[in-house]
Amino acid sequence: MLTYDELQHHSRKFLALTGLTLKEFQALLPAFKRAYTRKYPAHKTQVGKKRKRQVGGGRKSALDSMEQKLLFALVYQKTYPVQILLGELFDLSQSRTNDWIHRLLPILKDALGDLGVLPERDPQQFARHEKQQGG
C-alpha cells in the first residue's frame, strides 16, 4: 500500500507520484486541512447531518490522515490512473476509490485557490495579466 509515512522518505518517488516536493506538499497541507474541515466539519456527517456518535467511531479508512488524503488526491491528479489501479495502490475498492476522488478533488481545488496557485482558466483574464507583466 502506498503511504505518506513511507513515501516521504523517497524524494524522487514522491515528486514523480505527486508532482510536488515534500516541502511543497507540507506547504499545501495546512490549506488542504482547512478546506477539508470547512467542507466536512467534525461535528457533522459527510452528508451534513448532526453526528449521533463521536468522531472516530466505526471502520477505519485507508485514507485515515490528512496527509494520506492529500497524497491520494495528488497521485490521482498527477498520474490519472484507472480507478482500479489507484484503489490497489491505496488498498481501496474501485467504488470507494471513486467516492474518494469525488470527495477530495473539490477540497484540493479549494486549498489551491486559498493559496492563490490555481491556473488561470479564463483566456481573457490571462491575456490581461500577460499585458500587465509586459509579455
C-alpha-based Rg, rounded: 17 Å
Proportion of residues in β-strands: under 5%
Helix/strand class: mainly alpha
Major sheet: size, sense and barrel closure? none
Q: Alpha-carbon distance between the termini?
A: 46 Å
DSSP, total strands: 0
Q: Low-confidence runs (pLDDT<50, min 5 residues)?
A: none
Mean model confidence by pLDDT: 89
Number of helices: 7
Order of helices and strands: HHHHHHH
Brief overview, please?
The protein has 135 residues and is mainly α.
Q: If you had to describe this structure to a student in words, what would you say it looks like?
A:
The protein is mainly α and 135 residues long. It has one domain (4-49, 61-132). The protein contains seven helices and no strands. It has helices at 4-7, 11-18, 22-39, 66-79, 83-90, 94-115, 123-132. The longest helix is centred in the C-terminal third of the chain and has 22 residues, at 94-115.
Overview features:
135 residues
Please outline the helices and strands.
Elements: H1 4-7, H2 11-18, H3 22-39, H4 66-79, H5 83-90, H6 94-115, H7 123-132
